[in-house]
Design the sequence.
């Protein structure tokens, strides 16, 4: 299965993609994760991407195209993949087509995780990662035991550098202006499937699997 996840920052793309990866062995290909890894490793590419990421702007199309083409050509993507955070604008959606043709694959679905703006804000400002386990948590929504389990084991609840209110506002604006047009793009291509992205992670996952015909 070859899926693109669409949805605003905080819509749960990463969380749901990770779950599909764990349960169905589909690699989650997240340009955000790949870029953060490049920044953390202080590579030339990471240094080029960092300023845009810190400001909540999109990194240039040529940088992300290079990253995605290299990642999709790896063996583990040959049986399918979940694209999480790519494409982010119409140019990237067009750029993706020859990349997929090159590896002899085409998309099965573009899944939109649909979430109201006020919920997005809480998900983004509350989002944390446990420094020990990498588990994604949220100070507003995660059970207190799960938050405590991280800190009591000596971990820290780390906030992403771009999850501060100012950058979040810009990321949501960029989403509305540049990424939302992809909804019509994939609807016109007959690939769009919409999943209500509100409720618990389990509920959303069950809806997602039903929509994809996996349950
Ligand atoms: P994400 O983790 O998907 O929210 O991405 C975090 C940041 O990485 C974004 O705010 C952008 O600065 C950058 N980024 C991730 N994916 C892309 C993409 N497809 N195109 C351009 N920039 C991206």
Sequence:
């Amino acid at each position: 299965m070859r899926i693109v996840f669409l949805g605003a920052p905080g819509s749960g793309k990463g969380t749901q993609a990770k779950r599909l990866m764990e349960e169905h062995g589909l690699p989650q290909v997240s340009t955000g994760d790949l870029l953060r890894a490049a920044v953390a490793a202080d590579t030339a590419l990471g240094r080029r991407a960092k300023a845009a990421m810190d400001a909540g702007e999109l990194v240039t199309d040529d940088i992300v195209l290079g990253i995605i083409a290299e990642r999709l050509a790896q063996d583990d993507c040959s049986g399918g993949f979940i694209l999480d955070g790519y494409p982010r604008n119409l140019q990237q959606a067009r750029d993706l087509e020859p990349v997929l043709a090159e590896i002899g694959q085409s998309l099965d679905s573009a899944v939109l995780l649909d979430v109201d703006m006020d919920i997005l804000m809480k998900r983004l400002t509350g989002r944390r990662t446990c420094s020990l386990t990498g588990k994604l948590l949220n100070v507003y929504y995660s059970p207190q035991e799960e938050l405590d389990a991280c800190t009591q084991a000596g971990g820290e609840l780390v906030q992403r550098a771009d999850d501060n209110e100012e950058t979040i506002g810009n990321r949501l604006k960029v989403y509305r202006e540049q990424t939302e047009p992809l909804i019509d793009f994939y609807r016109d291509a007959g690939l769009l499937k919409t999943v209500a992205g509100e409720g618990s992670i389990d509920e959303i996952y069950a809806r997602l699997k039903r929509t994809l015909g996996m349950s």
The longest strand covers residues 109-114. The chain has ten helices and eight strands. The pocket of adenosine monophosphate is lined by residues 9, 31-32, 35, 52-53, 56-59, 64, 85-86, 88, 92, 162, 171 (CB under 6 Å). The chain has a mean pLDDT of 95.
